[in-house]
């Protein structure tokens, strides 16, 4: 590409996988163009490429919820690291069915970031600052960033990649924090895992509560078992004696998520056909053009044929009419279709994931939905639609995550083994009444009750812009630079990631990608989204704006 500028000054605020994906997209476009890249990275953790979620120093007990064969993020440039599967194979971890620890992916991503910034095809000047950006201002010369009392800039472009910025604890947790401080009880977050494991060394005589029953809880269960010296073997758990006396998990609906199919052979049975994928894309394109009352109708209609077909091929006892009815309920009350108790749900999910029993409608819908996430993102993220329409579609996707973002089968089997040996209890799992008592908490559900002196938070804060208390985001919200897409959503951004202020105009050269733009984007929690079309649209926008800037008088 012929450029009229010979230097682009870029700042990344946050440098996890999404920062790597965005930078890679930009460097790919600058290759052999003669344009130099002056890059400044603000990352107070100094984990470029990995971020805290994939910190290479975390324990091996935090694992991905997808197998190696599904980690499809090959670099767009000829980097020595290759793709993740090649990287793993070189290190003796080439089993495609293995669910790698997040630390292993983090080590790969950090290596890929290093190699990208040394890529011969583009002149890159990198300044990596172990600093937290606290203020952002635009002048005629460009954007200026204040970090730790120093001014940096001006920059042509600033990309906000916040991941999960600081939010105040929710009222329940804040109350529990005060209670613990005053009574000697313990409250602690699920992550960082090293911090939790250090604290758990002294819990062998304590009863522990875990707030949440999702993917993070699966990690916490491993921290408190194999992390303390126990082992799973032949479907049973063998304790070390260092585990807590009892573990009680609970959530608002009391239901565990459904595990993914055991291997590729079973997983392929849930593949939609090319024609079904095409019809789904058409349906999403229609959905985003509708008002909120009609938005989900074309999407649900497009799901019926593949789900009915797959169910029939696997001996399931449902037809197209049953699929329509299930989806009708899911639109208004996700989860109301499931009436089994938590352990029965867990056992049924394991059986379906093993292929030993036919899938339910919900299990089929979830697997098909998982396989069409890229098409969902491509046609949602690039579109303009009513905020209420976006809210409807995002809500539908979030509800289906109990199936589509399910854990490895291994995790569900481990939970079942812990229930069988009596170390974990689900007797107060379904939104129990919780009272503060001396030294801890009293949990009660119907005629079951339990007391705990440790409470672990395994519920991640929702990506709500309004709840973010980070100093930089407070400034940008207060001056109208950032606004919510709808209540409790992320920020309004254009399809190329540019921030759209309260006045409805894009903030030239200020962009944001990722989870905190939920509502403007969808399904942003996947590692694949970090290297997808959103990053490419941002990179294209950077070059377009640089060209326009260069031609201005």
CATH superfamily of the largest domain: FAD/NAD(P)-binding domain
- Structural class, judged by helices and strands? alpha/beta
| Relative strand content | 15-25%
Q: pLDDT below 50 for ≥5 consecutive residues: which ranges?
A: 548-553
The CATH topology of the largest domain comes to FAD/NAD(P)-binding domain
- Note the total helix count: 18
What is the strand tally? 19
Number of domains: 3
Q: Terminal Cα separation, in Å?
A: 22 Å
What profile does the largest beta sheet have? 6 strands, mixed
Sheet with the most strands: spatial strand order: 3-2-1-7-19-18
What percentage of residues falls in helices of 4 or more residues?
25-40%
Q: What would you report as the Rg, rounded to the nearest angstrom?
A: 24 Å
Gross geometry: globular
> Oligomeric form of this entry?
single chain
CATH class category name of the largest domain: Alpha Beta
Protein name: FAD-dependent urate hydroxylase HpyO/Asp monooxygenase CreE-like FAD/NAD(P)-binding domain-containing protein
Organism: Neptunicoccus cionae
Domain FAD-dependent urate hydroxylase HpyO/Asp monooxygenase CreE-like FAD/NAD(P)-binding: 11-163
Pfam families: NAD_binding_9
């Amino acid at each position: 590409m012929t450029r009229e500028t010979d230097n682009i000054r870029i700042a990344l605020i946050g440098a996890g996988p999404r920062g790597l994906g965005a930078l890679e997209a930009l460097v790919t476009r600058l290759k052999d163009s003669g344009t130099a890249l002056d890059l400044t990275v603000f990352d107070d953790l100094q984990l470029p490429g990995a971020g805290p979620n994939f910190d290479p120093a975390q324990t091996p007990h935090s694992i991905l919820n997808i197998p190696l064969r599904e980690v499809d993020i090959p670099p767009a440039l000829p980097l020595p690291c290759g793709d993740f599967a090649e990287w793993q194979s070189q290190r003796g971890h080439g089993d495609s069915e293995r669910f790698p620890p997040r630390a292993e992916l983090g080590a790969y991503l950090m290596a890929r970031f290093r190699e990208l910034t040394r890529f011969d095809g583009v002149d890159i000047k990198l300044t990596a600052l172990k600093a937290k950006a606290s203020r952002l201002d635009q002048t005629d010369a460009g954007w200026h960033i204040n970090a730790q009392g120093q001014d940096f800039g001006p920059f042509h472009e600033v990309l906000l990649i916040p991941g999960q910025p600081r939010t105040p604890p929710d009222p329940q947790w804040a109350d529990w924090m005060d209670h613990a401080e005053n009574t000697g009880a313990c409250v602690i977050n699920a992550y960082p895992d090293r911090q939790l494991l250090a604290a758990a060394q002294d819990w062998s005589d304590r009863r522990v509560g875990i707030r949440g029953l999702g993917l993070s809880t699966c990690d916490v269960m491993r921290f408190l078992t194999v992390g303390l010296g126990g082992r799973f073997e032949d479907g049973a758990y063998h304790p070390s004696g260092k585990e807590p006396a009892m573990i009680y998990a609970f959530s608002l609906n009391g239901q565990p998520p459904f595990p993914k199919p055991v291997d590729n052979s079973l997983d392929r049975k849930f593949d939609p056909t090319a024609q079904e994928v095409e019809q789904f894309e058409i349906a999403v394109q229609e959905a985003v053009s509708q008002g909120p009352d009609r938005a989900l109708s074309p999407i649900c209609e497009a799901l019926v044929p593949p789900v009915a077909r797959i169910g029939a091929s696997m001996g399931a006892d449902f037809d197209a009419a049953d699929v329509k009815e299930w989806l009708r309920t899911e639109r208004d009350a996700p989860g109301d279709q499931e009436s089994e108790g938590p352990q029965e749900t867990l056992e049924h999910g394991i059986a379906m994931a093993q292929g030993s029993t036919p899938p339910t409608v919900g299990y089929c819908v979830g697997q098909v939905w998982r396989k069409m996430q890229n098409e969902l993102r491509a046609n949602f993220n690039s579109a303009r639609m009513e905020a209420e329409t976006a809210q409807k579609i995002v809500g539908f996707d979030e509800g289906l995550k109990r199936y589509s973002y399910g854990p490895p089968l291994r995790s569900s089997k481990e939970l079942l083994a812990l229930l069988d040996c009596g170390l974990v209890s689900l007797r107060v799992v379904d939104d129990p009444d919780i009272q503060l008592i001396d030294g801890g908490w009293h949990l009660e559900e119907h005629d079951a009750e339990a007391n705990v002196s440790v409470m672990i938070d395994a519920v991640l804060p929702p990506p709500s812009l309004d709840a973010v208390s980070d100093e930089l985001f407070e400034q940008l919200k207060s001056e109208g630079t950032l606004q919510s897409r709808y209540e409790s959503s992320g920020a309004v951004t254009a399809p190329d990631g540019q921030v759209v202020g309260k006045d409805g105009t894009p903030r030239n050269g200020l962009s944001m990608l990722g989870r905190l733009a939920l509502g403007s984007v969808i399904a942003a929690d996947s590692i694949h989204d970090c290297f997808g079309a959103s990053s490419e649209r941002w990179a294209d926008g950077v070059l377009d704006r640089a060209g326009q800037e260069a031609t201005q008088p």
